[in-house]
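In this supplementary section we document a worked example of the pipeline. Step one takes a protein sequence of length 536 as its only input; no multiple sequence alignment statistics are reported here. Step two produces a three-dimensional model, which step three serialises into structure tokens for compact storage. The input and output of this example are shown verbatim.
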Amino acid sequence: MRFSRRYIFLLFSCFFISQIIPAQSFTADPPRLVIGIMVDGLQQKHIDVLWNYLESNGIKSIIEKGANCENVSYNIVSAGNASDIACVMTGSIPYYNGVAGDNTFNRNTAEIQEIIQDKNQVGIGTKKNYSAHNLLSSTVNDELMLANPEKSKSFAVAINAEEAIMLGGHTANSVVWIDDENLKWITTGYYTDGLSRWADEMNINKGFQQLANTAWVPMFNINTYFNKPTVEDKKTGFHYDPASKKAKNSTISIIKNTPTANDLVTNLGSKILTEEQLGKDIYPDMLMLQYTVRTPNEKTSALQSAEKEDMYFRLDKNIQNLLQKIDVNVGLDKTLIFLFANQTGVHSPKELGENKIPAGYFNARRSIALLSTYLMAVYGQERWIDGYYGKNIFLNKKKIEEKKINFKEMQQNIANFMLEFEGIQAAFPASDILNMSGNAHSEMVRIRNSTHKNSVGDVILTLLPGWIEVDDKNNPVGESNAIVSYTPLYFYGWKIKPQKIEASYQTTDIAPTLSRILNLPMPNANIGKPIEEITK
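The serialised model returned by step three reads:
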């Protein structure tokens, strides 16, 4: 009997070991370097149209030789790149990670402020005070830095501050972004290394300035493009000076919406890669990069201009140069690359309207003014509304309490009143949203996912299909109002096998996938699951 039990134990042990060996062999040799690439405005259908004109060793190489995740969606309402990137990097949603959009309404000051604003920080090269303090959970690169203190390295190079900080998280060595007024790299003192010495070098040796002063003209003969230029130049087809101002009285240049921005990101990213010796030891490093396919004077996200096509061709060249640099310095077999995009509407309201499809732009100023008049008529001549931002109405709670008015009743009256406005789909008291439960893929749960108790208003609006919100400067407040918003997602390099993954996943599944590959704890607010086809 003793022999039998021992024999059974040995059999069981062998079986158990045989089950865990495959998982261990997958992660026993993690990538030395992880490169994350976020492309603002990238759409799969644009790549499909331009496919035959792309280089074989650029974007095409990533898609053909890597894993193409064809059904990846954002389970939040579009509210800006900050919340989109935060979802990817934390494996979570605004309901937990706190980043409900690029901006938020401050009840104390009754002003709209940037989500990254932090009066306790100091800018480096800028007077703006930014940090990741409103990002309330850890990111996958935070977990990497916590797992290997002073061993792993993490950097982020981006076009905009929001993207840079969300990509860098809390613990990056340095994050930098483009100053489109003074034409240089800038950052915040929030990060250990401050302004990367290689960014500072580009500022000092005029490398940044030289690129900024290089004219943008078509890569190819203008007659070979599918579309005409938005602004035509008789000699070249189109001609832009990246350093030129957006408007006569503006101090801001157009550089962030030109290929020069992508060139700057590639040049600095490559410099950091080589000079910081990323991927050279057994401790994995991370380098996060943000690119764009946005163009000056862009009225639609559709591929409807020669400039837009050229942005893709030049981005393809940047990706090609980056891959070559990685292969020479680290090796693509030791580097994991993942590429994703933000939420972008497939069709703009303008394009839909021109094709007789109901759509429009919602600007809340008029409706909030009428709402204020209505509330005064019902409840008395007081300022009942503190402010509005991003489909959130903020009420004057102090005054409502002082006048002993039923708060819930007022919320419901406001919700009913707002339904009368063009473009409004529904309106809800905030408590109804925050306490929502049910089908994880329903629109109501997406709205709940997109709110956080620290920034939510008292009444929340939703818009009809085809409608998007714009602020008083006609800037979109989120660019997609689709019930399900998809993003391209590709994994490439390291041990990634060429494949098309048709199973449905969400962007919150990216961080746990990276965590599994890197043998890291999941970010502390993670709700996603590893992508099985990548990690098995």
